[in-house]
Amino acid sequence: MDLVHALAHLVTELPAALSRRVDPRQGLSLVWGAINAGQAANAIPQSGEAHGTVRCMDERAWAEAPDLVLELVDSIASVYGAKTELDYVRGVPPVVNDEAVIDAMRAAAAEVCGPENVVSTEQSLGGEDYSWYLRQVPGAMARLGVRTPGETVQRDLHQPSFLADESAIAVGVRFFTRLALG
Which one of 18, 20, 57, 91 has the lowest number of neighbouring Cβ atoms within 10 Å? Predict the structure, then answer.
């Protein structure tokens, strides 16, 4: 058995298989971060590893993902005669915002910043610990824009070039004060 060939098929076929087995509206995504097998160009390795992250936008997909990933990993690997061992570490659940809280936040933000400065954002596949709180009490997560007004360069949050305009802190304080006072 050519383990590298089997591993290559696993890392390309698993994300594709997941996209066919999960409703696209549930937003399940698998991204590989590290793949490794062998050290020598002239030897077939006996083992290999692939490390990735599964992200979900839906509670149901998050709950079902481990069993589905295991099923598909075994199915794909078996075609090539490879044996698998899966260590699935469940991360944080998806952030599920409460509609009533979203409405209250939108109203408070419009009062503080003006309605023209309140914009909806796309749901993110980023992992967010805040989701654990939202499983206990109704709430919502909002994003406070921190780019300097007029600046056209968008810097990614997780890059060394990221620079927050600290005057946004005062806007955030006014927003949360207005929200708390209703």
Answer: 20
